[in-house]
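Z., the sequence and structure:
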Amino acid sequence: MNEQWSSKLGFILASAGAAIGLGALWRFPYLTGMNGGGAFFLLFIFFTLLIGMPLLISEFIIGRGSKREAVSAYAKLQATGVWKWIGRFGLVGCFLLLTFYAVIGGWILTYSILSLTGSILRPGGNYEELFGYIVGSPLISIAGLVVFIAINVAVLSFGIKNGIERVNKYLMPLLFVFLFIIIIRSLTLDGAMEGVRFFLDPDFNKITTAGTLEALGQSFFSLAVGFSCMVTYSSYLGNNQSLPKSAGSIVILNLLVSLMAGLAVFPAVFAFNLEPDSGPALLFVVLPSVFEQIPLGGMFLSLFLLLFFFATLTSSFSLLEIMISAFTQNKRYKRNRVAMISGLLVTVAGIPAALSNNLLSDVSLFGRSVFDLTDFVVSNLMLPIGCLFIALFVGYKMNKSILFEQYQLASGGLSRTAGLWYLLMQTIVPTVIVIVFIFGLIPL
């Protein structure tokens, strides 16, 4: 690779930004609310440390060990058989994921703009109707999609140091600052402690088999593993950085943001006697109802939406970068041109998902809208398959000398944990992934 991260912090913040997005700030709170609170949070922590972190280290090792972006990394390390297709599979997965991810990013951008102009909060406002209007408008949905992708293209055109790394150095700290402000406001509400108890006091009687599987699936989402995004990011990394230490830092940041997201959402929800199991509408419908009743609620809602938009952007950077890097390896093509073409392709492919709640609302494939079907295929089928093949590749096909060399570089005392990590990748990780994949397809 011709580019590299300029600092260890830049790599960690960019990688954390790739992981912290819709998964941590949107998906985690509503899944926690639907699965009983504290027990789900503990299971999520357990699976993140046991399954997610070893997979994250593995993607880092593949990237730096090959010094190639995701598509060519596997072919360099194991040129025979189906293994060289893992990176291409991840490329397709990232492309499909971004087609509906960018639609949600457009919704959040729309909400952010409306919030800044004071157009959301109204006494007794019907926020479900507002959400329906926004997603039901073809013009708003497509405009949001186009602008969201355009921002991605603009940032990624500048490359690793001047694009992704520079932007993340500002966005990630801002995310923590904004989220901290929301937490302070939420915790000072009357009745907030009931929400804290719901979130942090585990009641395992509320956990079901489906909830356990969702906690495990969330550990995949929260660390952005499975589609080799982190293979591409780590290919820009020098040998002076410990991969397990970097992975540990990213896992800690991810768990911290999940904790902070819960402390921002649930105290406010319980303070106003709202339902924590409102599902995906928790952000767009329930939270405006909460902020409407809080002094300076408009300001706090704007802060929350802006940080949410920032987090969504930093995640989408990694999804688009895997496409761009596949064609800019060794400067075969100019980065800005590839970024524009990639952005255009994603935008065109994302239009059906953007129209799923309006012009194409009557179109159904296998009982799902285009948006929901794409989400299901990516989340329930492609993601666990990608994780499984990465685990098998590392556990049984990749050269052991490269594996252990990359694990131990600059790792100090952590070098002694290489054997445990390798054992997890050979046994526990693939076994659990197969269970998630099988039971994830069976209605429970």
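The chain has a mean pLDDT of 85. DSSP finds 19 helices and no strands in the chain.

Let me know what you think.
H.
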